[in-house]
Amino acid sequence: MTGSETVLVTLEAGVLRLTLNRPDKLNSFNEEMHLALRAGFERAQADSAVRAVLLTGSGRGFCAGQDLGDRDPRKGGPAPDLGHTLETFYNPTLRLIRNLEKPIVCAVNGVAAGAGANIALACDIVLAAKSAKFIQAFAKIGLVPDAGGSWSLARILGEPRAKALALTAEPLTAEKAADWGMIWKAVEDADLMAEAGALAASLAAGPTLGLGLTKRLIHASATQSLDEQLDMERDLQRIAGRSADYAEGVTAFLEKRKAEFKGQ
Fold first, then answer.
1. Which residue among 29, 100, 246, 249 has the highest number of C-beta atoms inside a 10 angstrom radius?
2. How far apart are CA 86 and CA 77, in angstroms?
3. Are 90 and 98 in contact (CB under 8 A)?
4. What does the angle CA 16 – CA 39 – CA 125 come to, to the nearest 5 degrees?
């Protein structure tokens, strides 16, 4: 377990489980939770024992975004520098999530609002309980989408739906999010953690070096030409083809047995 109770951390069978843990505040972010979550993803990056990450929330919500309790304008004082908040807390964590070359599964167990929704969308495979909702809440308080939301929404959904969600702050159900291709799937509430845990465990037991290279390729495809992408496929396939995981995968196939990958 981490030094902060705001994010619970466990490692089992290669899966690092990070659980946002401010349930009385719908897991909204304060500075302590920001730093604890970043530490979790830094561990995932540095620790070879971590083969996959499972991110979820405790209680009845996934994450309600930023805790606004300490930003009450009625208390007076200077206007907050929210750009500083993003640069200091959110953006480093979003970059860690996006650049981690290990699979990240997100289990959205309840409302995901504001930055909470966009942190979920930064993960690789998102499952959500059917009761969950995704809300771009920024428009309700005069802000712009952050935590990568303006980037991910447009790429995942296209400009018309991204604008509509961002400008109206209309809640999007988990089932509609799945239908639109915003998340991988919506599952029964009672089945969410079992299914997400099984998926994360399966990924952790897989050829994680190749999975990480696959993530790198897919991320690069948004900004590269076909020729650039073909060259990158060639270069990364060369790396994958020289890996112990590839040798094990082929050997296991020929021997008609289950492969035992090491992520190397």
1. 29
2. 20
3. no
4. 45
Dump pLDDT digits (tens) for 108-125.
999 999 999 999 999 999
Burial 36-64 (b: 16+ CB within 10 A, else e): bbbbbbebbeeeeebbbbbbbbbbebbbb
Residues 170 and 92 grouped into a single domain: yes
Average pLDDT over residues 90-103: 97
Domain identity same for 169 and 186: yes
Which of the four pLDDT bands, split at 50, 70 and 90, describes residue 3?
A: low
Split into its structural domains, the chain has a count of 2
**Residues 152-183 as b or e (16 or more Cβ within 10 Å = b):** bbbeebeeebbeebbeebebbebbebbeeebb
Please, which pLDDT band fits residue 192 given cuts at 50, 70 and 90? Answer: very high
Domain end, chosen from 169, 189, 204, is at 204
Summarize the confidence of residues 242-249 as an average pLDDT.
95
Kind and range of the H or E element at 232?
helix 226-241
Residue 261 falls within a domain, yes or no? no
Instruction: Classify 235 as helix, strand or coil.
Output: helix
Residue count of the chain: 264
Structural domain that includes position 132:
7-204
**Helix H or strand E encompassing 195:** helix 192-204
Looking at the fold, whether 64 and 86 belong to one and the same domain comes out as: yes
Provide the whole-model pTM: 0.94
- Token output for 255: 């021997």
pLDDT in tens, 214-245: 999 999 999 999 999 999 999 999 999 999 99
